[in-house]
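FYI - complex with adenosine-5'-triphosphate, inputs then prediction.
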Amino acid sequence: MLFSKSFIPILKNNPSEAVIKSHQLMLRVGMIKQSSAGIYSWLPLGFKVMKKIEQIVREEQDRIGVQEILMPTIQSSEIWKESGRYEDYGEEMLRIKDRQNREMLYGPTNEELITDIFRTSIKSYKSLPQLLYHIQWKFRDELRPRFGIMRCREFFMKDAYSFDLNDEEAIFSYNKFFLSYLRTFQRLELSAIPMAADTGPIGGNLSHEFIILAETGESKIYTDKRIFDVSSDNTKLEKKSLNDLRKKYETYYAVTDEKFNKSDFEKNIPEKFRLSTKGIEVGHIFYFGDKYSKPMNASVDYQGKKEFVKMGSYGVGVSRLVGAIIEAKYDDKNEIMNWPMSVTPYECAVIPLINKNDNLNLEKALNIYKYLSEKKIDTIVDDTDENFSSKIKKFNFIGIPFQIMIGKKSEGDLFEFKEIGKDSKNLSIEDIVKIIINKKK
Ligand code: ATP
Ligand code: MG
């Protein structure tokens, strides 16, 4: 991509309406544009990052055997009346009437719709488990939308649903998602802590929130630092191994402030391992048994009897993750954004120093661009005549992890190359490609 032809509307100053880093930065480097309160358009830079996150989330769902579907954003109120949530959901639900005066709504979540899909087709226990997911826009009319896409009204979510015959099988499904979430956040280079979450009115059920540490997070958290050392590597996709993994996490105290108890915190954790900080909820998994299957009559035949299926649901805030990654990775001191290689909007920036009446550096830059593109390295070239130092600053700000500067320091076949935040060195283009490709693995 040539910068001069790109749609990256960078702002000169921090927008005054933004109070947290991710919101400021996303507006400043033109990743998003607000269209109305809590509703955003995703511009090329932001959309690229979100698509990459979406793809990682998708691959990790597929890996545990969840099947992808796509449900609509607009739902009928009928099924919500069946489950009893139509009234309960209150003002967060955006209600719409169509021209026939039918009550419709913009889905805030999909338990009812998926239960309806399931019950019309699946009749035998032999078809279980069924694990289904989709990645789709949701709408929740949040009382106070804030922090940009972190708490907005229209947001992009991966939501999955499991259907099983009994508690044991359902918990097996739950644990698969538990592992899948650990793997997903690991690929995004985030340390996410699974925290036992409030289960609401139906006690005894199982729920974890996945929280990443960030000073600007909305959840206050209290945890044992040793939880960061638990590893999910080599966990097999079988009952015992998955249960052991979850139990390993659960041996460490980790709660949000709703469940916080000072004396438990101090009793359970030696002082040097205590951590109280803030975090951002990026995922939530929930086992709720027959909460929806019973009122909506979703059952299978098992040994001549009708059994209501046992269900769970599993959400990841795909669009929220874009902001959450910024909050977790931004280097405040040097004003540098550190995108993980797996989701960076571009992998490499080529930055030529362009003098009037001299096209040599630009030509070199375009040749390098061509070469890197052949090597499947996603590259942007700054072909504008902006001055050299502000170009460099701009790409640190956007956070492109690798940069090739073609200025006074590059000589002959060697180019000034740096990994963001580190010192530069002169290298041949072949060596540069090796370094980038190695980092992509
Ligand atoms: P929160 O406690 O942050 O309001 P929630 O508990 O209402 O979230 P869930 O129903 O568990 O959210 O939704 C699953 C995921 O969707 C959350 O973990 C979060 O990452 C994301 N999410 C929820 N609400 C929003 C929102 N208003 N804006 C952006 N992402 C959201
Ligand atoms: Mg939640």
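Residues 209, 281, 284 surround magnesium ion (ligand 2) (CB under 6 Å). The chain has two domains: 3-329, 348-440.
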